[in-house]
Inverse folding.
């Protein structure tokens, strides 16, 4: 059984539906406006086997984030089927559940429970999380005193201690200083070596080679190509106006 | 279909969410829990002054009487008002983590319950000061508060879900709360209400709660059988309705937040 299976998945969003007041709903009834549908994903099918890692490449607005939301179980598809047979942890917008008035420790516990760790497990890995974050005494201070780099360090430290079957990494590696970035990469390597599945998202595909052997290229919500990373990436980078590396022909 | 990708610790998350609301509220107040007591104490003092000095009422132990009304009413309006906003204010969670959505309104109501415990302590303290001794009917208190909290949770599930799609629901809730203050026997006794309205009044769990509290704390008697029956019925129906409505629309939250 595949770990992730997408079968003819279509996800549409109605544009202009958010944050309506009563008056908006009444106007819609009166004018019978045709709501325009935005196709974030159209008829997408692919499978990921256990232990396999996949890079998702594509421009802004190609449907990468929607695809990840579907894997993470945040939304349901309008058509088709999404099957995920494992636990997912997403490093999407790290620390979005943090509150600035709470201390680092309090946010740590809060975030651990949001990401699905049990109380017992959190207690077990607590020291390791604090150590990984490496922000010293700031751990006991309110988050509003943190630099943005410190917030990311704490968020990443918690996230890598969730023990998922699938780890979603959404362009977060551009953060922190180089020492911390190396620490993150080491941790991701560790996941990879444990045979976990990584889902990478990037529009700069260069850094993915170390972890992924396969890439899925999305454009305008459709799969353009699905195959070995070293074949797809040059095609993609050729499309997105960068000179095609001559080595790959 | 896929079950739940989250697979976390429900209880651990619930306690963390409750503590978070509670800590944030009190951390920004230099006097902390004292503020929880100040509001009911001041309102009690003012209303007691008005109804003993300006419009003298024959009601004995007026402070206990009015606090039996204020405690459930304040909890209700605060929990309902803040709970209605719960999903919209948790956009960061709803759009990023696949936690069970139901946990958000439930945690919101329960965090208000921490606040409520302090106010109940004040109510019992004032009750004792006015020579209403502890009696075995106090055992009914957890039962009726239980019904009441279930009722509020059901209501919050309904309005917090609708508020995602129609954002001015919160203003309707606020206005309704303002009106409700006068329609619940907080300042006046139930006996002032004309007979023909009695049954409607007793169907309102907030009014029923006030009456039950006065039965227990001031009359040393068990709450009336029909009051208990009404509370049990309205609470369970509201909760089931809330749960059903919430479940049927929660899948669309992501698109509207």
């Amino acid at each position: 059984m595949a770990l992730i299976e997408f079968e003819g998945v279509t996800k549409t969003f109605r544009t202009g539906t958010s944050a309506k007041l009563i008056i908006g709903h009444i106007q819609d009834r009166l004018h019978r406006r045709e709501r325009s549908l935005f196709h974030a994903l159209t008829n997408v099918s692919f499978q990921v086997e256990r232990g396999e890692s996949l890079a998702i490449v594509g421009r802004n607005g190609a449907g990468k984030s929607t695809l990840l939301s579907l894997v993470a179980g945040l939304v349901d598809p309008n058509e088709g089927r999404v099957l995920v047979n494992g636990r997912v942890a997403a490093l999407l917008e790290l620390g979005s559940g943090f509150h600035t008035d709470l201390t680092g420790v309090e946010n740590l516990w809060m975030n651990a429970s949001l990401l699905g760790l049990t109380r017992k497990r959190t207690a077990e890995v607590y020291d390791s999380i604090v150590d990984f974050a490496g922000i010293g005494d700031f751990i006991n201070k309110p988050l509003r005193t943190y630099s943005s780099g410190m917030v990311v360090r704490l968020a990443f430290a918690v996230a890598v201690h969730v023990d998922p079957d699938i780890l979603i990494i959404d362009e977060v590696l551009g953060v922190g200083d180089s020492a911390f970035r190396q620490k993150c990469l080491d941790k991701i390597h560790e996941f990879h070596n444990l045979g976990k599945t990584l889902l990478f998202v990037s529009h700069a595909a260069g850094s993915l080679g170390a972890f992924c052997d396969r890439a899925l290229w999305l454009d305008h919500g459709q799969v353009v190509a699905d195959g070995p990373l070293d074949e797809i990436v040059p095609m993609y980078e050729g499309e997105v106006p960068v000179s095609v590396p001559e080595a790959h022909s | 279909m896929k079950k739940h990708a989250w697979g976390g610790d429900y209880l651990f998350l619930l306690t963390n969410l409750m503590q978070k609301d509670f800590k944030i509220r009190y951390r920004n107040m230099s006097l902390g829990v004292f503020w929880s007591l100040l509001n009911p104490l001041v309102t009690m003092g003012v209303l007691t002054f008005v109804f003993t000095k300006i419009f003298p009422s024959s009601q004995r132990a007026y402070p206990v009487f009015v606090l039996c009304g204020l405690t459930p009413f304040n909890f209700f309006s605060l929990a309902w008002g803040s709970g209605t906003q719960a999903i919209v204010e948790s956009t960061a969670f709803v759009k990023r983590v696949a936690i069970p959505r139901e946990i958000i309104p439930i945690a919101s109501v329960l965090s208000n319950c921490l606040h409520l415990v302090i106010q109940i302590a004040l109510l019992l303290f004032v009750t004792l000061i006015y020579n209403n001794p502890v009696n075995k009917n106090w055992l009914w208190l957890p039962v009726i508060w239980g019904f009441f909290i279930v009722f509020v949770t059901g209501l919050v599930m309904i309005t917090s879900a609708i508020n995602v799609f129609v954002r001015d629901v919160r203003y309707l809730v606020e206005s309704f709360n303002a009106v409700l203050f006068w329609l619940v026997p907080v300042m006046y006794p139930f006996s002032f209400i004309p007979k023909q309205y009695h049954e409607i009044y007793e169907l309102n769990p907030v009014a029923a709660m006030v009456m039950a509290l006065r039965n227990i704390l001031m009359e040393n008697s068990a709450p009336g059988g029909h009051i208990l029956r009404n509370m049990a019925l309205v609470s369970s129906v509201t909760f089931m309705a809330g749960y059903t409505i919430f479940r049927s629309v929660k899948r669309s939250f992501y698109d509207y937040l």
About this structure: Confidence is low (pLDDT under 50) at residues 242-249 of chain A. The CA atoms of residues 51 and 123 of chain A lie 28 Å apart. Residues 178-193 of chain A form the longest helix (16 residues).
